[in-house]
Amino acid sequence: MDRLPGRGQWLSERVLEATIPIDTRADFGAGGFALDAQDVALRSLAGLDLAAAVARIRIPLWLVNGQFDQLRMHEGLFRRLAPQAELIIVPRTTHLVTAMRPRVFNAVLGVALATIGHGAPSAS
Asked: 85 with 59: CB under 8 angstroms?
C-alpha cells in the first residue's frame, strides 16, 4: 500500500464509497487512517499460524463472516479446526461486515454474548 500514490488513500476512499453505507461512512474514517501502520500490520499477518491458534481455542468460538468476504476461502479449514464453532454469515457484506452492516453485526454479537452468558457457570 505504501508504494501506491498517496499511500493508497485514494484506493481506500473508493473502497469505502463502494462498500460502506453512507450513514456510517463518516464514522468509519472519522479518526483518520493509520497509514503508517498498514504495511507493518499486513506483513505481521504473514507470520501468524492461524491454523494452530484456532485449534488451541477452548472457549466458545463464533466465526462471523460477510457473505462476500474474501477470507471465506478458508472457512472450511476453520470449521474443521474448530467444529464446535458457530458459523454466522451476514448477507450482503464483505470483509468489512462491522462497518457495512453494523446493526446486524451488533445483533449477532448480542446473541453470542447472551448465548455464552447463558451457558456460563454462576459466580457463587
From this structure: no
